[in-house]
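Sequence design from tokenized structure. All designs in this work follow the same two-part layout: the structure record, then the generated sequence. An example of the structure record is given first.
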């Protein structure tokens, strides 16, 4: 089967990474050569809503996926500034897969 995309992008806080996230990424890998997992709230201090650091979440993802085509990029939150957030997402994806020509977005059906 030919893959439809060079890269699919999965965005989330992943606090914590769980089986649902894993299922979405596995599905993405059937549709694209690479998956960029863009992790939000990456540089925020620990709190009730964000108990895990970017490094801890990246370790969870790498342990579960064990696939070199799953790339992880952290971004900051930009409350009330969607344009800054979009720029940060695009920059993260470009850094992870600079040569990608076909890029798509994937998420859970509730998203």
């Amino acid at each position: 089967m030919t893959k439809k995309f060079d890269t699919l992008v999965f965005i989330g806080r992943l606090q914590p990474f769980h089986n649902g996230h894993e299922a979405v990424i596995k599905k993405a890998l059937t549709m694209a050569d690479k998956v960029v997992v863009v992790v939000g709230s990456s540089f925020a201090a620990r709190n009730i809503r964000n108990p895990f650091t970017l490094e801890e979440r990246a370790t969870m993802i790498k342990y579960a996926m064990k696939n070199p085509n799953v790339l992880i990029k952290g971004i900051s939150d930009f409350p009330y500034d969607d344009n800054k957030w979009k720029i940060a997402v695009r920059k993260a994806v470009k850094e992870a897969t600079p040569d990608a020509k076909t890029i798509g977005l994937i998420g859970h059906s509730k998203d």
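Strands lie at 5-12, 32-39, 70-74, 103-106. We note this feature because it recurs in several other targets discussed in the main text.
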